[in-house]
Design a protein that fits this description.
about 230 residues, alpha+beta, Ribosomal Protein S5, domain 2, Alpha-Beta Plaits, 5-stranded antiparallel beta sheet, disordered N terminus
Length: about 230
């Protein structure tokens, strides 16, 4: 999904793409199975809930929370039959307050579901709040996170034979590479660069140097790109 370009945010933290992360706790004989998945639409977030309802069809509760968008503008939660305010909201608060760095709370595009199998011992309202909060927090502790940044895409076209070496040189210089495309005679390398004139100018100068002045860099649009957390 291409996210809105008028967002004020230029970066945020999210789950690594393409995988689902699970973690289980047992608290007073109740099983709390937390499932985390990256989602950038409400439909994708609700698909996770629906899928887990089918998988764990005999569980008593499938509580959920999700935060979506670079500005975290969409926030939803559900107690799914637990006493009001004891499951979904505590889960959502863990997502909202999660720090990617000291003082930085910017986790988004994350859907969390906690499947509970009741163990026969009542936990009380306070116990439920602690259990659901701990379940999501513990799952986030072991889930790989990435930084998602809105970067300027710049393209450079070179003959196929020269593309591999140029890409390696650019990666070695610390540049983030976006998706490469191939034409009949040339390879188009795409660099993802901070959307600042000085950064783009420096990258253009580097490309000219690496290609002995034979190839130039052309800025295009911006895209959201995953980069490793520092």
């Amino acid at each position: 999904m291409v996210q809105e370009q008028d967002s004020r945010a230029t970066s945020y933290t999210t789950l690594a793409a393409g995988e689902e992360f699970r973690h289980e706790l047992e608290i007073k004989r109740s099983r709390f199975i937390t499932v985390l998945r990256r989602a950038d639409t409400e439909e994708a977030a609700r698909d996770l809930v629906n899928g887990l309802r089918r998988e764990f069809h005999d569980a008593r509760h499938h509580c959920s929370a999700f935060v979506l968008g670079p500005d975290r503008g969409i926030q939803r939660s559900s107690d799914d039959g637990e006493p009001s305010g004891t499951a979904g909201i505590p889960m959502l608060e863990v997502l909202i307050k999660r720090e990617s760095a000291p003082g930085a709370t910017d986790l988004s595009d994350v859907s969390a579901v906690v499947v509970r199998y009741f163990g026969g011992i009542l936990l009380g309202a306070g116990g439920l709040v602690r259990a659901y909060s701990e379940s999501v927090s513990s799952a986030l502790d072991v889930a790989p996170l990435v930084r998602r940044r809105r970067l300027r895409i710049c393209e450079v076209s070179v003959p196929h034979a020269a593309a591999g070496r140029l890409e390696n040189d650019l990666r070695a210089a610390g540049y983030v590479m976006a998706e490469t495309s191939y034409g009949a005679r040339e390879t188009v390398l795409r660099l993802a660069i901070a959307d600042e004139p000085a950064e783009i100018a420096a990258a253009a100068e580097r490309v000219l140097s690496l290609t002995a002045g034979k190839a130039g860099l052309t800025p295009t649009g911006t895209e959201w790109i995953d980069v490793p957390l520092p």
